[in-house]
What we know:
Blueprint: H1 2-17, H2 22-31, H3 50-61, H4 65-83, H5 87-99, E1 103-106, H6 109-115, E2 123-128, E3 131-141, E4 149-157, E5 164-169, E6 175-177, E7 192-201, E8 206-208, H7 211-243, H8 246-250, H9 253-276, H10 278-281, H11 283-308, H12 320-327, H13 337-347
Parallel strand pairs: 1-4, 2-4
Antiparallel strand pairs: 2-3, 3-7, 4-5, 5-8, 6-7
Helix pairs in contact: 3-4, 3-7, 4-5, 4-7, 7-9, 7-11, 9-11, 11-12, 11-13
Residues 73, 106-109, 118, 140-142, 183, 186, 191, 332-334, 336, 338-339, 342 line the site of flavin-adenine dinucleotide.
InterPro entries: Acyl-CoA_Oxase/DH_mid-dom_sf, AcylCoA_DH/ox_N, AcylCoA_DH/ox_N_sf, AcylCoA_DH/oxidase_NM_dom_sf
Domain Acyl-CoA dehydrogenase/oxidase N-terminal: 9-101
Protein name: Acyl-CoA/acyl-ACP dehydrogenase
Amino acid sequence: MNSLAAWLETHAEALDSDPSRASEVLPQLVRAGAAAVGVPETLGGAGGTIADAIDIVAAVAQRSLTAAFVLWGHRTFIEYVQRSDNGVLRERTLAPLLKGEIAGATGLSNAMKYLSNIEALQMRATRRAEGFTLDGSLPWITNLRREGFIAAAAFEHEDGTPPSIFAIPHDAPGVQRSDDLDLIGLRASNTAALQVSEVSLDASYRLTADARNWLLHVRPAFLGLQCGMSIGLARRALQTTSEASAASRDSIRAEVAEAEAKLGEQSAHLRTGVLDGTFLERPAALFQLRIDLADTVTRAVSLEVQASGGRGYLRGQTGTARRVREASFIPIVTPSLVQLKAQLTQHRPVSVA
Length: 353
Ligand SMILES: Cc1cc2nc3c(=O)[nH]c(=O)nc-3n(C[C@H](O)[C@H](O)[C@H](O)COP(=O)(O)OP(=O)(O)OC[C@H]3O[C@@H](n4cnc5c(N)ncnc54)[C@H](O)[C@@H]3O)c2cc1C
């Protein structure tokens, strides 16, 4: 992790503002062992739990949210493969994923919105004698490495059977990645649109034939790993605030202490909830925690801006301006804050499923 940390510290600004190092991010993460944390040793991983994987996402996010989001996509895809009952797919993809030979990408925003009855599925699967023909497009997917990727997406079946989730390999005929999207930040994240036109895949590429139930089970890991990004970003902003001169930090000392305490409680709550099954039984608790963590990020970054003064507004002097941009991503990544708040309002006081 030390050499990864140093690499991220050196290149964090460039990773945010320019796509030229996009191809280096995943190899750096994999070399440091970040993608293998929380994957059982019997499957070729480093052992540990999903909470340990969240800690690694947080440690990376302390240095670069771009790299943390790449890690989120890759590690979440690994979680999908682990939790799939498709042994052939696991056998085929897990080792190359752990070695970083292919990039895991999760195009499941549409599916998560579908799960919350916000959006219809945008991809269609037609059953054929030898497998399925897949069609559709997704406007946003991160970690679509030009060197090779495999992307998860949910598909409605033409014959009306329950939706499935497929893992789409980059080299299947009919799969097309767009150019990188012209983002305001996270520019080395290999974020692009994906077009799938008459792609033929057999059942060995199907992560699940029951998207709805499977998504409910992977959602705590999906969201928990995402919360790791908020934890790391907020932690770094608060650390930077504490390192400011005494004169600039004295009058906000109490606010910083309060934010630090809140972040500590939220991190502990996340860890407990992903490990003891609370978030599976009561997703509303995790939704609320994701909202609360986003608030902590906003507060932490605002305190950093206040403590940094004009220096934070100069290019290349501090990471403050970058963290402000990074923080603006936190509310919009699916499930977005608007979506979560709507769900909590609709379903209160009963638990949200
Ligand atoms: C840099 C970047 C990388 C991304 N990477 C990925 C990725 O790897 N995989 C992936 O799947 N997605 C990815 N996304 C997409 C992201 O997760 C969100 O889905 C997307 O930014 C929000 O969708 P939208 O803009 O289409 O929202 P819109 O549909 O335009 O909606 C606007 C807001 O309202 C909310 N909303 C809409 N309808 C409702 C409703 N009925 N009830 C409650 N709330 C509602 C939405 O959640 C959103 O917050 C990425 C986005 C960005 C910016």
